[in-house]
Every structure is written in C-alpha cells, then in structure tokens.
C-alpha cells in the first residue's frame, strides 16, 4: 500500500512515521519548505520526501493520501487526486483505526483550545493515561506510533473534520459556532456549520455529543438534522434534567443520574465563555467517571493556556513565566499571588485606568525589582517607586528580558504580567508573549 502525504509539518511527519510502522510505502511531498527538524526525522526513519514541489508521478500512484489541514481542496494536486478517485483523508482519519483508545474530540469556532487543555488536565489529574493532540501539541498519529495511551483528547478544526470518512469520537464537544474560514466553504455559513457537525456523523447510541444549547447556529442545525449520539447540552440561561447549567452562582451538572455542583468562584477560569468551557470539560470528566474531589481540584488549579502563567524556560535556576494575557490588574493579582519565589516583575503598557494599589501587599511580599515596559510608566513608578529596591524603564522586550536576567539570581522568577493592554509597543498580547518567549530563548 502506497501512502502519500501532502504537507511535511507536524501532522504530515507524524502520519509518515505511523504509516511506515504499519507497513505502508510512504512518500511525503511539501509544496513549501520542510523544517530542518522534520527533515531529520524523515531521513532517520528512511522516509522518502520532496519539498518546494509536488511531483505528479510520485503522488498520483497513491492508494491513499493524507492531506495536511492547511491545504485547501481547491489546490490543483488535490483536484487531480479526487478526479482519479484516490481517497484523500486527514491525519485523524488515517490514525484512528490503529488505536482502540477512547477518543474525546473537541471542535468549535472559539474556546476549543481552552476546553481541550482543560479536559486533558481533568483526566490527567485523575491519573488517566491520556494523550493530547489534533490541532495542538504532538501529532495524534505520531503519538499512536510512539506510545500507547488509553484515551486521547483531540482539538479538531473543521478542516480536519472535512477529511474524515469513518472517524468517530466516543465523546464529542462542539463549543460554539460563529462564521469563520468561510473562504474555504464557498462563502456559505451553512457549509461551515455542517463541517463542524461532521464530528458526530459516525457516532452511535453509545456515544455522546456535548454542545452549547445557547448557540443559535447549533439550535438551528438540530431543527433539520439528527445525530444518534446521546445529547448533553450546556447553558448559562437554561436548566436541564440531563446537562450542565448555572444556578445561584453554582455550576451544576447532571449526567447518568449523577449530580455534580461547584461554586463558580472556585473555578480558575474567568469569564462567561470560560464557564461554558468548564461545563463542557467537566461533562467529559463525569462521563469518564472521574471523582468529584479530583474534578473540583483540577477546575480550581487549571492554568494551562499559552500566554497565561505559561512557564517558558528555567535559565541558571531562574524560572521565566509568560503571563502576557494578563491585561488587567485582576489577572496580574492572580499571577503575583501564585508566585512563591522572589520575583522580577515586568509590567506596563496601555493603562485601562488601573488601580495598582490592589497589588501593593503582594508587591511588598514577593517583588524584588520592577521593569516598566511601556510608553508611559509614570503611574507604576508613582505607586511602587518606594516599595521595591530596583525600578527600571525599557521600551522593548529584549531589553526588558536582558535587564531581568541581570536583576535576578538563583531561585528567583521573572514574570511578564503587564496588567495593561499591549497596543503601545506590540500588535496584541500574543505578539507580546511571543516576543517575551523569543527574548528568553535568546539569552
């Protein structure tokens, strides 16, 4: 059997490794450049590849083709394959038959990364042998080739779902649906909605679909379509005999005659949209029969999304932490509160009328030096000037990080938690966080 893979990125190389292990003759073709680290993996594994071209003779003789999600169906090579009747599938479709693990698939326009990370955190904290993959982390196929997990939590984009035939998760989540990527769907919103619902198309009566019952697009879909899966809705406004909802500042979840409640104030994730993400993830945990105490603890200590208290590197025993997502004082309070070593704090940006006095006791207790990274730092200097030993102003990220390295010593932490918006020096908080991580790596 000849397996041709279009795209030599994470999913492509992972599929190549699994294919090789399962006895396929494998060829990887990338129209762009393949990253050096992926080339090395292909060479070590004796897998044939090409870059910056698609050689038709080497592709059109495939028995099956795995296409990376970034390549549209409209691309010339994909059109040729489909015209010849060659099966073009996604990584998850190729990989799933090679595992008998329980699969939890999560899709949606927004919130799917947080929900995926939180679901993985809940299951892992309970001691389950669980992998994380799909649209984030290590390739699903690669993980199946390498290690044996009993269950997988997969973040799935609509592009990945477009390439499935038989794939089905035992538990599916659709977080929400809003118009996105319509250029790939002939500018028809209904095509995009249908694409998301492909996650449930092969589910049976033994499977579950967890969905946002407040979502207009989903409610409309259910008026004209059905799924065999058992439905578990979640909502901020409605209540259910089976599902997840809010009542008197408590999250309540009723599944299979069992009830779980938790005060919303103890859930680490903030904001209404995150409450929904927490409901969806907790519904999975209940279906997987995780103990209530474990769920409560995991929901209260979850921190795992990029730019949110993200541990970057430890250099000379100093921990660098990226909390660029902290664009207000409340978020920074949470960050400083979680520090248990002397901290060099990088703060500043576009002030939203901040009252920094709320942070005073934490700064006195934990912060040894402050680096102001903003165009106007007057307010921060006025509030904390007499509180810390060292206060320095910089106007770019690499200076901030280099300065922090000088001011820190073994056992300290360097925390980027700006308490401000980023638009004075950066495109957005992600850009700010990425620049911080890059600057740390350049030390």
Automatic annotation (TrEMBL):
Q: Name one GO biological process term.
A: peptidoglycan biosynthetic process
Where ATP binds, per the record, is at 108-114
Listed name of the protein: UDP-N-acetylmuramoylalanine--D-glutamate ligase
**Matches recorded under Gene3D superfamilies:** Mur ligase, C-terminal domain, Mur-like, catalytic domain, NAD(P)-binding Rossmann-like Domain
**What GO cellular component entries does it have?**
cytoplasm
Q: Where is the Mur ligase C-terminal domain?
A: 307-420
- Which InterPro entries does the entry link to? Mur-like_cat_sf, Mur_ligase_C, Mur_ligase_C_dom_sf, Mur_ligase_cen, MurD
């Amino acid at each position: 059997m000849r397996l041709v893979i279009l795209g030599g990125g994470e999913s492509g190389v992972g599929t190549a490794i699994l294919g090789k292990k399962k006895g396929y003759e494998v060829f990887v073709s990338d129209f762009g450049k393949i990253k050096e680290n992926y080339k090395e993996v292909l060479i070590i594994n004796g897998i044939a590849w090409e870059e910056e071209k698609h050689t038709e003779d080497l592709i059109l003789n495939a028995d099956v083709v795995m296409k990376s999600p970034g390549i549209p169906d409209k691309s010339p090579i994909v059109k040729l394959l489909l015209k010849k009747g060659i099966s073009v599938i996604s990584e998850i479709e190729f990989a799933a038959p090679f595992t008998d693990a329980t699969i939890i698939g999560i899709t949606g326009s927004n919130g799917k990364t947080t929900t995926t990370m939180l679901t993985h955190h809940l299951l892992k904290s309970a001691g389950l042998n669980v992998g994380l993959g799909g649209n984030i982390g290590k390739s699903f196929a690669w993980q199946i080739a390498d290690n044996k997990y009993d269950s997988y939590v997969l973040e799935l984009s609509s592009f990945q779902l477009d390439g499935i035939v038989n794939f089905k998760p035992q538990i599916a989540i659709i977080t929400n649906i809003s118009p996105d990527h319509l250029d790939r769907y002939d500018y028809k919103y209904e095509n995009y909605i249908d694409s998301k619902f492909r996650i449930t198309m092969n589910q049976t009566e033994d499977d579950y679909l967890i969905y946002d019952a407040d979502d207009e697009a989903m409610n409309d879909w259910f008026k004209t379509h059905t799924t065999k899966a058992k439905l578990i809705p979640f909502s901020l406004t409605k209540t259910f005999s089976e599902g997840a909802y809010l009542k008197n500042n408590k999250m309540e979840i009723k599944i299979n005659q069992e009830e779980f409640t938790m005060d919303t104030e103890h859930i680490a994730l903030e904001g209404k949209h995150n409450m929904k993400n927490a409901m969806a993830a907790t519904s999975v945990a209940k279906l997987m029969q995780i103990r209530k105490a474990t769920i409560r603890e995991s929901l209260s200590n979850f921190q795992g999304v990029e730019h949110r208290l993200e541990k970057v590197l430890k250099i000379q025993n100093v921990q660098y932490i990226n909390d660029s997502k902290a664009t207000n004082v409340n978020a920074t309070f949470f960050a400083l509160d979680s520090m248990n070593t002397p901290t060099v704090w990088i703060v500043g940006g576009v002030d939203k009328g901040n009252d920094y006095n709320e942070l005073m006791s934490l700064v006195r207790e934990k912060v040894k030096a402050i680096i102001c990274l903003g165009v106007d730092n007057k307010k921060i200097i006025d509030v904390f000037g007499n509180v810390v030993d060292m206060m320095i102003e910089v106007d770019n990220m690499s200076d901030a990080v280099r300065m922090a390295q000088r001011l820190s010593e073994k056992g300290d932490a360097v925390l980027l938690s700006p308490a401000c918006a980023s638009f004075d020096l950066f495109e957005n908080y992600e850009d700010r966080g990425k620049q911080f991580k890059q600057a740390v790596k350049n030390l």
